[in-house]
DNA sequence: CAGGCTTTGTA
DNA sequence: ACAAAGCCT
């Protein structure tokens, strides 16, 4: 391997169970650890949304801050650069005389294209990429990726049948390779302006892992996981998983440890089951490529929905005719997090009651959710809209029934003021525009 | 080809 | 448990 290596960090902001770091620790090299903040994350995209809203931005900065502290303790550092990633990295590679680049493989198509462009710009640099975002290695899957089952259940049955080993990468106690640059990295400003349930970073993730598995919560997960509210009703690993502050393998391993030390029941199995959904969406995203973002998804016909700006704005701002949906959107806007149940209700409302183009909903969740994950977000929206991996034609949740079942005494709706901006009709018709 | 029986997939 | 799709008669 080369002598001067650059590690381009993306959604792998951890040192434990990080095969790239484990490998680098054994190398004789000088190492430059870099994260690039892309200004496009804070500008409007095709859907007039920003890929990074304020909550997600704060979680990212917290995650970078914690990682930088840990790397400094190990005689290394993290350089956070700003700009278009290919341009910035190309310059860095030239300035620092880099001859090898290592990074994790990403299931997102933009990220894959960025890496391909960087490779094309730097023909003399050796690139080594590692798949470390999934539970399984692609070579351990009992089928070729292009033969990935079309639905979750056959996927689950196939992978469960072969019992794929899930092993963690150990990080040697030795220091990491020496930094390339003598100048210290710019310290990261710690952002803690917004109150969040989850604090970004690898240490915070480990603290939460210990919290979640130290009590009895895992053994009741299946009975509480559908609640609209309540920190301990679900595992809450999603945001740390999304930024790679913790790996899915570490969570999976912790479940199995818990099963050995305490109890293995339907609930503990269900945590692993949900990690398999995440896994399925990862491989699905990689398999279907750009159609993950297309209006008709993997189907041949487009949904019978359109884009109506006022309706979409009402949905975003919690001003629909549905108090439960309004409460959900208010919580999302205030905190950057909503429960799985809440996501399904809000998404179904956008597609079915409001007849809106599902991609706008997906882009809004991408902006607002601190745990945004390209595969899970776009895959789930396609599923709700009936253009993805669900064998049925989408999912229509009956909002009245969902309210009766999950918020019968309006505790959640009142907490998030779902009645504050409830409109009585879908569209505000201006009488002046109405021909008499 | 309506109607019932079986299979499949479910967060 | 249940609903939709596929299959059979």
In short:
The chain has helices spanning 19-24, 54-73, 85-95, 109-121, 152-162, 202-214, 221-224, 238-243, 248-261, 266-288, 309-316, 323-335, 340-353, 358-368, 374-385, 399-406, 411-415; strands at residues 4-9, 30-37, 79-82, 100-104, 126-130, 178-179. With 436 residues, it is an alpha/beta fold.
Strand/helix succession: EHEHEHEHEHEHHHHHHHHHHHH
* Count of alpha/pi helices: 17
The CATH class of the largest domain, by name, is Alpha Beta
For the secondary structure, the number of strands is 6
Number of domains: 3
Give average pLDDT, whole number: 92
Rough outline: globular
Task: State the major sheet.
Answer: 6 strands, parallel
Percent of residues in helical segments? Answer: 40-55%
Distance between the termini: 78 Å
Briefly note the CATH topology name of the largest domain. Answer: Rossmann fold
- CATH architecture label of the largest domain: 3-Layer(aba) Sandwich
* Rg (C-alpha, Å): 23 Å
């Amino acid at each position: 391997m080369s002598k001067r290596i650059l590690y381009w960090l993306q959604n792998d902001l951890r040192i434990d169970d990080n095969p790239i770091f484990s490998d680098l620790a054994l190398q004789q090299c000088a190492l430059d650890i870099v994260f690039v903040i892309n200004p496009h994350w804070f500008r409007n995209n095709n859907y007039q949304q920003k890929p990074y809203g304020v909550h997600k931005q704060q979680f990212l900065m917290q995650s970078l801050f914690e990682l930088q502290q840990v790397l400094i303790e190990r005689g290394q550092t993290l350089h956070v650069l700003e700009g278009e990633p290919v341009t910035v990295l190309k310059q860095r590679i030239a300035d620092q005389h880099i001859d090898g680049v290592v990074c994790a493989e990403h299931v997102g198509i933009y990220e894959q294209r960025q890496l391909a462009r960087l490779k094309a710009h730097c023909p003399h640099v050796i690139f080594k990429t590692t798949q470390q975002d999934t539970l399984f290695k692609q070579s351990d899957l009992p089928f070729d990726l292009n033969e990935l089952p079309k639905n979750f259940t056959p996927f689950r049955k196939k992978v469960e049948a072969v019992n794929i080993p899930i092993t963690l990468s150990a990080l040697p106690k030795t220091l990491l390779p020496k930094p390339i640059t003598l100048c210290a990295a710019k310290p990261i400003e710690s952002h803690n302006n917004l109150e969040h349930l989850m604090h970004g970073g690898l240490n915070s993730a480990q603290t939460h892992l210990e919290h979640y598995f130290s009590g009895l919560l895992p053994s009741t997960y299946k009975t509480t996981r559908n609640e609209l509210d309540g920190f301990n009703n679900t595992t809450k690993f999603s945001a740390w998983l999304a930024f790679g502050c913790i790996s899915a393998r570490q969570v999976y391993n912790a479940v199995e440890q818990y099963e050995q030390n305490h109890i293995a029941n339907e609930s503990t199995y269900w945590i692993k089951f949900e990690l398999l959904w995440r896994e399925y969406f990862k491989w699905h995203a990689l398999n279907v490529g750009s159609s993950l973002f297309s209006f008709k998804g993997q189907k041949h016909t487009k949904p019978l929905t359109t884009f109506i700006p006022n309706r979409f704005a009402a949905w975003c701002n919690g001003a629909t005719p549905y108090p439960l949906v309004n409460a959900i959107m208010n919580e999302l806007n205030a905190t950057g997090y909503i429960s799985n149940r809440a996501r399904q209700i809000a998404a179904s409302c956008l597609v079915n009651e409001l007849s809106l183009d599902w991609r706008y909903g997906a882009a809004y969740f991408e902006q607002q959710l601190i745990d945004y994950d390209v595969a899970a977000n776009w895959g789930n929206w396609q599923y709700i809209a009936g253009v993805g991996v669900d064998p049925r034609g989408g999912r229509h949740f009956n909002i009245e029934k969902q309210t009766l079942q999950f918020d019968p005494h309006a505790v959640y709706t009142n907490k998030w003021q779902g009645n504050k901006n409830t409109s009585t009709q879908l569209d505000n018709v201006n009488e002046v525009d109405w021909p008499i």
